[in-house]
Specification:
two-stranded antiparallel ribbon; mainly beta; 5-stranded mixed beta sheet; about 120 residues; about 0% helix
């Protein structure tokens, strides 16, 4: 059994509170975050990261009090969408600045809703 220690009281973000979809034609993603229930400071910074193996991209989504996606959400560091996962990180802006307050990791993207396919997930990626 692997034990994990959490000395900083970092809160785990549930996958059900993060919805990410990628448009295959443009490599652009959209993210919807529900962070209200975690009791995080309003001024804490929110970041969404896309990663696969050693490649990653970070996007600044503003603060917990005002989650605003940046205008450029294109995954141009990746040549294919296969195997891309996402993580959401919330960091403190007050002392100790930069401390990780909450994190959700290994979040797979869903497909954008299309006519007649709402709520359906493909069996194969």
């Amino acid at each position: 059994m692997i034990r994990r220690y959490n000395y900083t009281n970092r809160r785990p973000i549930d996958r059900s509170d993060v919805a990410i979809s990628i448009r295959e034609d443009s490599f652009r993603f959209e993210a919807t975050l529900k962070l209200e229930k975690y009791g995080l400071p309003e001024g804490a910074r929110v970041f969404v990261e896309a990663y696969r193996q050693t490649s990653w991209m970070r996007f600044d989504f503003g603060t917990v009090g005002a989650v605003v996606p940046p205008p450029d959400l294109i995954l141009n560091e990746f040549d294919t969408l296969e195997g891309i996962l996402f993580r959401v990180r919330v960091t403190a802006t007050e002392a100790p600045a930069g401390q990780l307050l909450a994190e959700g990791d290994q979040i797979p993207p869903g497909r954008p809703p299309e006519a007649g396919n709402e709520g359906r997930e493909p069996l194969l990626p």
